[in-house]
């Protein structure tokens, strides 16, 4: 593989001159520039991405801030990442996954000030998110996959949680269910201001009130065991319960197991709708989960396109795009049993 030294030797110039031709940091005569480019073509020299980006002060790399906190990527999260990665690739960019949460200010400051990354996509957004404040202060370009409480001046691409919850409640109410439970994310997520947990809690309260049915919310950690505990608490607090919404894929699997081991039929006795769920997870369950299918790949791609457009146009205006989840009826929802 040819090196910069090989190009310099073939063109009869110094290595620094080859570098200047690549980066544009110093003026080079047209004749010298043509000689260097001809040598590159003859040797099939491929400059690295960082060298190519120096001239425009761009690395062609964007960072995806996704705090993993000791857990792996689930199927739904993977769809977000896949969509963002493919949209970046199509535009000639690379995407770097950075496990940076709201408490990782020092790490984020290092990433933003080193200028290795042209911009950032921010996931797992809290209503008050310190990453947003820091990126604003550093004047680093970014787009949220999510929304803060005050989104003025921000670019946000998010799930339309209000519409998604209302559609899920309407589905169960249309099947005759009058007493519903919502198994949300954990108490800690709610307390920290995690956007999806807080928005869906408010949306569920509004939806049951609008549809004139009874509703109960129960938090659950992101485990099957917690899902089992949550549905037990819900049934204890509301014995007439016949419909369940769940915003927690691992908990959903635990709920199905607990109901089955309690001698209850799904969907004969209790219907279950899983929200913001990937098709992969829904089809793995037994019975297959009726779900509000997450637009994860489309959302990740849309956020990436918005970020790259803003980079190209130096746009800092307010932008918001909301994508709904789509109801897919499978094997866990049916008409409420008449008593």
From TrEMBL:
Domain (HTH cro/C1-type): residue spans on this chain: 3-46
Molecular function in Gene Ontology: DNA-binding transcription factor activity; transcription cis-regulatory region binding
PANTHER family: HTH-TYPE TRANSCRIPTIONAL REGULATOR GALS (PTHR30146:SF109), LACI-RELATED TRANSCRIPTIONAL REPRESSOR (PTHR30146)
Protein name: LacI family transcriptional regulator
Keywords: DNA-binding, Transcription, Transcription regulation
Domain of life of the source: Bacteria
PROSITE patterns per the UniProt record, alphabetical: HTH_CROC1, HTH_LACI_1, HTH_LACI_2
């Amino acid at each position: 593989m040819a090196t910069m030294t090989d190009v310099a030797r073939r063109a009869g110039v110094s290595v620094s001159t080859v570098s200047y031709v690549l980066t544009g940091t110093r003026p080079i005569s047209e004749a010298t520039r043509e000689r260097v480019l001809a040598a590159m073509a003859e040797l099939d020299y491929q400059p690295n991405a960082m060298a190519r980006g120096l001239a425009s002060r761009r690395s062609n790399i964007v960072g995806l801030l996704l705090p993993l906190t000791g857990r792996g990527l689930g199927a739904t999260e993977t769809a977000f990442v896949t969509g963002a990665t493919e949209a970046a690739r199509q535009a000639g960019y690379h995407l770097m996954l950075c496990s940076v949460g709201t408490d990782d200010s020092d790490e984020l400051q290092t990433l933003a000030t080193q200028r290795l990354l042209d911009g950032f996509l921010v996931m797992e957004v809290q209503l008050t998110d310190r990453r947003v404040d820091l990126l604003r202060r550093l004047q680093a370009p970014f787009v949220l996959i999510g929304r803060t409480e005050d989104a003025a001046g921000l670019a946000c691409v998010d799930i339309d949680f209000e519409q998604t919850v209302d559609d899920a409640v309407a589905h169960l109410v249309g099947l005759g269910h009058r007493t519903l439970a919502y198994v949300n994310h954990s108490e800690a997520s709610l307390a920290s201001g995690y956007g999806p947990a807080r928005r869906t809690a408010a949306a569920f309260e509004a939806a049951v009130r609008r549809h004139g049915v009874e509703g109960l919310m129960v938090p659950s950690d992101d485990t099957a065991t917690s899902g089992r505990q949550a549905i037990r608490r819900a049934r204890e607090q509301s014995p007439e319960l016949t419909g369940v919404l769940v915003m927690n894929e691992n908990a959903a699997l635990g709920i199905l197991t607990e109901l089955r081991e309690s001698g209850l039929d799904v969907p004969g006795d209790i219907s279950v709708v899983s929200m913001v769920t990937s098709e992969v997870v829904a089809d793995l369950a037994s019975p297959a989960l009726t779900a509000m299918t997450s637009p994860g790949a489309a959302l990740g791609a849309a956020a990436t396109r918005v970020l790259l457009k803003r980079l190209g146009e130096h746009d800092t205006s307010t932008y918001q795009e909301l994508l709904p989840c789509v109801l897919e009826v499978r094997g866990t929802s049916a008409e409420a049993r008449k008593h």
